[in-house]
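Sharing a chain and its predicted structure for anyone who wants a worked example. Both blocks are below, sequence first, tokens second.
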Amino acid sequence: MKQSLLVRCAVALLFMGTLGLPAQAASVSGAIFTTTSDGTVVNANLYDSKCGVYLDGGPGPNAPANAAGLPDGDYYFQVTDPSGSQLLSTDPVSNRRFQVANGVIVAYTGVGGPPHQTGIDQDHPELGAITIRLANTNCPADYLNSPNNGGVYRVWATPVGDFVGDRTQVDNDCGNGCFHGFVPSRSKTDNFKAEASAPTFCLTILKEFRAGEEGEFTLFAGWQMSVTDPLGTINVRVTDENGQVQLCGLGEGMYTVTEQIQDATHVVGLIVNGVSFPPELVDSTYSFNWDPTKPAPVIVFQNQGPPSDQ
């Protein structure tokens, strides 16, 4: 009777497993490592900026393409402190995704946040191998500085199918033995050091235009904006299809933003972080001093052309 009961229990457990209870999965083969943008340095270990750290996987310099190659498929990556307890990546998991083919990283496929830059891996360009910068275009604001006194970071990579949690979120509480959605036994990791970066901000400039004295303002593309930084360097940009110019990674100091004034147009409005300037203070130039205690500026220049009946 006891033996029959044990058999029934074993069968029931097996049946429950077929209904979706996780089985112990094999560890991921291959390796990841940090490198420079062209992939020529394996485990550089010490970087003078977080913006200079790139992810590579599979074979290193002068190694055959199948040496230490990751299994083909799709992966997520994250950056944490050395213990893994603190997540330092600040964009959604879905934005930290890449694809492996023939044992090398061949594509960055992240969505849902500022993109991560890529470089051509000089070790296996014939396979389309690339490197992926760990920080996105908001660098060095993304990722956060490590709390480790030695400036040590850990990068992780895990197959998409082994991630635990909601990929649209930045962080995921997945329980004991799981770190922000990454299970150690199903992940590859590598430690590196990078110098702490000073706080930065993103400057957003919007261009609104109306043809005459009446009517609504609309966002306007192709309008030239100039930004002078604290060192006197002038950065000239043109508004995109959304009527916007955005510059990220800017540091502390004084900035001057100047918009181009075209023939038969004039400035009629200036809005900074949602606050409209009085008419007598409206100008095509706006200066501000930024420090980490202040919000990132969003500047809107409003222009008007000739009256609509001319």
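Comments welcome. The chain has a mean pLDDT of 83.
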